[in-house]
Amino acid sequence: xxxxxxxxxxxxxxxxxxxxxxxxxxxxxxxxxxxxxxxxxxxxxxxxxxxxxxxxxxxxxxxxxxxxxxxxxxxxxxxxxxxxxxxxxxxxxxxxxxxxxxxxxxxxxxxxxxxxxxxxxxxxxxxxxxxxxxxxxxxxxxxxxxxxxxxxxxxxxxxxxxxxxxxxxxxxxxxxxxxxxxxxxxxxxxxxxxxxxxxxxxxxxxxxxxxxxxxxxxxxxxxxxxxxxxxxxxxxxxxxxxxxxxxxxxxxxxxxxxxxxxxxxxxxxxxxxxxxxxxxxxxxxxx
Length: 287
Fold this sequence. Notes:
single chain, eight-stranded mixed β-sheet, 10 helices, Rossmann fold, globular, 18% strand
């Protein structure tokens, strides 16, 4: 069904925690795929479900690495399931590589992988892309996504980094998916922090559109979509055993709001044009 690419810029933590939290409360069938080129850490942080209703360790050799070996002979959506694992609590995950060295020979994978993810009907895929860098080959995955989501904290330094990254990414994704921003916000100043980031992002994107108006198509639309509560205790509880105190944590409560917002955005997407039909004009993301 839908592919949502989750990422952050320099200094913005929490993409993996956010991906797992969103996956835990996602209202439709979902797969969390660890696509971080720097190496993922799901295998070190979360327990796998064992056949005897106990727990086991995730297998680092079964996931993106084993899928990449298969994909060299062609990749179909139905091949992905055999490389996935299930966490305690029921969330399916595609474990990523464990070190950046393994990513060097996989730059060709991201486009075909994204297209395979998009064909996983009726499963949505939350792709944890980690922290983006200049010239990241993950841009090939993002171009195929239905929505790209960047996470930021509401600090001056991180919003400045976000503004620079959005300027580059909105241009690279021109004609592609819209970009959403999720603010990792302190619960004590939650709504005000989101509103301030929204104001800064809106102003920066308006200037970017004005600069691009004379040179071609507008950049990809950018919208602040809400916030996730900075909740260290909730993050510690996020160990695959969902329910009880975790279900009442600020992290999970805010994740439910974000998940509903993202699914609503996906449902409101324009229908794909039929062969031979005239394309619809590009729509700016609603605020």
